[in-house]
Amino acid sequence: MLLDFEQPIAALEGKLLEMQKLADESDVDVSEAVTALQAKIKALKKETYANLTRWQRVQLSRHPERPQMLDYIGGMVDKFVELHGDRTVGDDKAMVGGLGELDGHTVMFIGQQKGHNTKERQYRNFGMANPEGYRKALRLMKLAEKFNVPIVTLIDTMGAFPGLEAEERGQGEAIARNLKEMFMLKVPVICIIIGEGASGGALGIAIGDRVLMLENTWYSVISPESCSSILWRTWDYKEQAAEALKLTAIDMHKAGLVDGIVKEPLGGAHTAPEQMIETLKNTLLKTLKELGAIAPADRISQRIDKFSAMGVVVE
Amino acid sequence: MSWFKRVEKGIVTPTDQKKETPDGLWHKCQECKSVVTMAEHKRLLYVCGPCGHHDRIDAADYFDFLFDGGRFTELDAELTSGDPLRFVDTKEYPKRLVATERNTGLKDAVRTAHGLSAGQPLVVAAMDFKFIGGSMGSVVGEKIARAIDYARQTRTPFLMISRSGGARMMEAGYSLMQMAKTSAKLALLSEAGVPYVSLLTDPTTGGVTASFAMLGDFNIAEPGALIGFAGPRVIKETIGKDLPKGFQSAEFVLEHGFLDFIVDRRELKQRLADLLGMLQPVSAANPEPREARRTPSKAH
Questions:
Q1: ipTM of the assembly?
Q2: Mean pLDDT for all residues in chain B
Q3: Where is the CoA carboxyltransferase C-terminal domain (chain A) (predicted)?
């Protein structure tokens, strides 16, 4: 799948391939033209991705080929043992968790999985967790705390599931409890927005000592579409809503609402997934080391102080 | 050919001049249509005598009947909203704030105060729905956070009265983080062993439900209040069916195990006093009051 702003680049890349094929089949020397075209592609890519609009970043965050929770696990973790169930209602397939080894360190990984194809997306409920998903996440966090294992959450959701059963089983209470409990976890907690970070559904696993966003992701109180439909009574103003919400990694970091940005490969995470996974792995290892040096009580008070300072008021 | 001819076109009253309750002498219940005098309605704390319908009331009304003699000290009354995102939709956010302040006489969607209730100290934060739907922005989060801090430092029980549509979109990311901030403060309050009662009133939805409103040591609600995470319209669209009767009502939420009890507004003050009276927070001056009471006197 190609996004509209990816098309001009893809067109040039197609041309380059043709040219190289031509060179292979005949004796024509095209090396000069190839070099020129390669330079042109590079320049166009740089220009396109340096000037992405907020809506274009939202599109990249949702790209169907973008690496998801289980792709990161598969690419960076050894001996992953998936753990299931909230011990009360069931096992939420939208929320995945388990223990794994990251370069020899045991880590509890928790995150939403959206799914790559229709069948998987249905199975995963499009990454929209029910209350049992948030309770499963909390159970695993407490387990991690018990065994002094650091926690990494990978956030990628359009929101907590707004269904009938979700309300019956207390979606609001499940998220609220996670917020409160995560502040008191004695082990290091790192939260990474790897795709979409929609509202309470994202925040419910995103209280951490470090909250980082991948470069082409969004994190806000509402999706641009829903914001548009509430404020303008139609979905047509989603681009405008994305601008108004200032929901990109750059915006959120500038506002002091997240701690940092993880760079993506030029063209977005989906164009070079292996490179992306490697970058995130290195970031996690570095951050775990930093956090490990802080005493648990200090980590907790720093975590609380950081979130307590968020907001802009006039005295 | 009609018998009568309309001389003037349609109804010409602009929406902002229409009132939900007329300021007249009489009040008509929107549920059962029974009529009482305004004075009587106020005396009944805006609850309908015959059917028990609870009207939506303001923070000021709660302060008036919860605090003894209506006397209280307000906290952070002057706090107002910034516009960090320079948010513009159909209107600029600061203009919306100014207009709302002018129409409601309120600074934002929550008021916080401390005083005596049935003779016992109490910190109360109460939300005002008429200020942009009781939505939670930085001011709401900050005022609640400071009220919780005050409760913790003075070891005074904390009562939160929620009435909110959820997050305030015009503060986007900042709004979302108020959920985190208030939950952090409640974690500290909880650790300190100071009681927290959360009263959910009509309506309590979205980010407010998914943070402080559901985190009480005691979650209680007014009868018939709409309580939920997602709004009914969103759920209806998701499942493509009509919602069952009574779905997301306080009674429904009680039945599913998320409330301790439902309380009639006219009994709220007494019920709170009864409940909190049994839970004197351990004070610094008298660290073990229960233990002390149990120790038999040696003099006899």
A1: 0.95
A2: 90
A3: 36-290
